[in-house]
Amino acid sequence: MHMSTDAIAPTPTWLEQLRANPRLPLMLGASVLVAALAAALLWTRAPDYGVLYSNLSDRDGGAIIASLQQMNIPYKFTEGGGALLVAADKVPEARLRLAALGLPKGGNVGFELLDNQKFGTSQFAEQINYQRALEGELARSINVISAVSSARVHLALPKASLFVRDQKQPSASVVLTLHPGRVIDDGQISAVVHLVSSSVPELSARSVTVVDQQGNLLSSANAGARGLDTSQLKYSQEIEQGYVRRIEAILEPLMGTGNVHVQVSADIDFSVVESTDEKYFPNNDPARAAIRSQQISQSGQQGAGTVAGGVPGALSNQPPANPRTDVAGAAAPGGASLINSRKDGTTNYELDRSIRHVQFSAGAVKRLSVAVLVNHRGTLSAQGKPETKALSAADMEKITNLVKETMGFSTERGDSVNVVNSQFATEPVAEVAQQPWWRQPENLELAGLAGKSLLFGVLALSLLFGVVRPLMRKAQPVQAVAQSSGEVGASENENEAESEADAEATSVNVSAQAEATQAKRHQDNVKYAQEAAIHGPQMVAMLLKHWMGQKDA
């Protein structure tokens, strides 16, 4: 039998090796399966990433990435590049190690600027560095506020003067960048103002200006009293809410929960008043009068004497020339008896005096205005259907009296109470759109795990039935074809040898029986070879090449 080898494509060497060794495809398939299983397992156990930092500046981002590379901590960015992600279990460690390196700096330098101060630095440079450091520290402190994304502080510190009249007051400006959708309230603004004013000597809260990124002025001219106004407003709200809770607590057991709405407006007097009174009362009753002090002075003179006479002058003041003493002691002629007395008295009485010092504290309630809205009472009709009914005048009077007693109603204070009974408007409750089950987070997570497991199983089955099993099936026919082809080749060689011997022996006379036998054998061999070529054409081609190689040798 002659077959053409030009029509048969050459078989690759690696395929011949696979067919020559039936175990090699099995080992290759097993290796691929193990690799696929390992890849799927690693994929299912991929670490979850957490946010390390977000909204970093370019300088801080570069420094943090360089530090993470030195620490051998894997990282990646979000799609927009706004956040830096690392493995969730590495987030605390990475933050602590980066904090030890002073990262992130946040774009503001603090007092660490003074750590590397040079020896020959001028006084002006020292003052500038101190001002920069103080501005940076204040900005870092303001950044702690939740609504603030970043802050910048500008300080205007005048040069110190020896003269008090020439000393200028410092001022400060703060620029706040808020997070999208966040609002900073008045209390936080007041906190920023007082934080800056308390950190700079001689800086008044009135000299601090706060502006947001939109250019809106957040601080007013009376920033110094903003904190007090905030506390007053908070105190007023607490007073009003206290009255509301007390009134609702006493009316809800009667009307039911949700059937009473109360609003209270309190007029609070925050002025501080000090009063001192001193009163005097006269002693109208002499018998009960109390003597404080009494002084009496009395004087008197009694005796005889001559009356001075004559011409005024020196002669009248001279004694007589020959004085004579009266032995009997009689009164001189022309003399008289004199009596002189005087009495003075001063009495001081105690006065009734009253002194009163009164200090009125701030926060006194000057007036209360209370409005109460009461829903209609729910009842059942004769048919058993629920319906509402207005309250009677007696019930309204009872409710009004309860409200007055609860609030401490005072006519002198000018309090007012208004109770209204009206049907509440009932709106149909809109059903909350329930999220489909396939969009619920827990179901999504479960679906992700199931998808990974399913993909893992499909990959394993596809490798098993698509690669390993076909190779095993092909290995068995190849071995059978090789054996059958060997037998065919041997029989053909034997038949050719016998044919040549018979031809030589019976070259002259060929019997019809020998020709018939040879023809039958030839037909059987051709038929067997055709079957072998159908089942294993590549093996037959390889066998023919092998025979041709032997003949050439």
Name of the CATH homologous superfamily of the domain at 111-221: ANL, C-terminal domain
Structural class: alpha+beta
Low-confidence stretches: 1-11, 221-228, 327-335, 484-488, 505-510
Largest sheet: 3 strands, antiparallel
CATH topology description of the domain at 111-221: GMP Synthetase, Chain A, domain 3
CATH architecture of the domain at 111-221: 2-Layer Sandwich
Please report the distance between the alpha carbons of the first and last residues: 20 Å
Helical segment count: 11
Shape: elongated
Instruction: Supply the CATH class of the domain at 111-221.
Output: Alpha Beta
Order of helices and strands: HHEHEEHHEEHEHEEEEEEEEHEHHH
Number of strands: 15
Structure characterization notes:
By secondary structure, the chain is of the alpha+beta class. Among the domains are: 53 residues, Hypothetical protein rpa1041 (Alpha-Beta Plaits, 2-Layer Sandwich); 111 residues, GMP Synthetase, Chain A, domain 3 (2-Layer Sandwich), CATH 3.30.300; 95 residues, 2-Layer Sandwich (GMP Synthetase, Chain A, domain 3); 33 residues. 43% of the residues lie in helices and 21% in strands. The protein is built from 11 helices and 15 strands. A 3-stranded antiparallel β-sheet has the order 1-3-2, with helices on one face. Helix 2 packs antiparallel against helix 9 and helix 7 packs antiparallel against helix 8. The longest helix is centred in the C-terminal third of the chain and has 65 residues.
